[in-house]
Amino acid sequence: GSEWVLGRDGSIKWNTLDLIPPRTKSIIINPVGYELSTPKLELFNHSHIPLLCDILSAVKTHLKGTVNHTCGTHVHIGFPMNEIYKDHIRCMLAYYSHMEKKVFDPIVPISRRNNLYCRKTTTDLENKYQKLNSRYSQFNTSQKCDNLRFESRQLEGTLDIYEAIYWAKLQTYIVYDLLDSTHDLLCDGEDKSYIYRSKLMQMNIFDILFHYNFDSSMISFFIDRVIKFKSRSI
User: Fold this and answer.
1) Which secondary structure element, helix H or strand E, spans residue 189, and what is its range?
2) What pLDDT sits at residue 46?
3) I need a surface site. Which of 89, 165, 180, 195 has the fewest CB within 10 A?
4) Which of 8, 19, 118 minimizes the C-alpha distance to 68?
5) CA 20, 23, 29 angle in degrees (round to 5)?
6) What average pLDDT does range 125-135 have in this prediction?
7) Is the pLDDT of residue 153 over 60?
């Protein structure tokens, strides 16, 4: 929509003793979990990103907002439904799930790799009529009117503008390429992009970062995360 919405979120849990200052343990504090939902923003719009930055700053300054390990950042990526069918989406989910371990798991904390609200991405390639995936998958999809929307849930909760934008940018590039190559395969009847997609699916996070020629600050940001979360498999 077009509105900013701040709503209650019961999935956010607090350890209240950590929030109560020393010597005042008898004071009862009941912090409340909230989720901030943005209106539709354009990733490369020069006015939308500063606006998001201002909002996050206001949350921290005026609402004393903070995040903990039970919070998550959800990024929705929309596409027009232009000759995109259920088979495209099914293949797309399968390709993405194949990349999760080597590309996305290494840059998120363990708490975001598989939990109740952020489950491994799966899809049944045989059953064409079942629901393609769970709403709580790390990566899921939904269709509304003539728009297709993918949701990435793996990033931990954040109030840092760079963290949010870098993650959204990484997801957008990969999702676009996977969806585009899947569309070519199923519409043309010939997998012209097989070599490219196979190469993409075999990459780890380092390969991906240099494959897209991201700027040095974004590359350094994700490399620091690999080190921070001790992703020894990479």
Assistant:
1) none
2) 85
3) 195
4) 19
5) 25
6) 58
7) yes
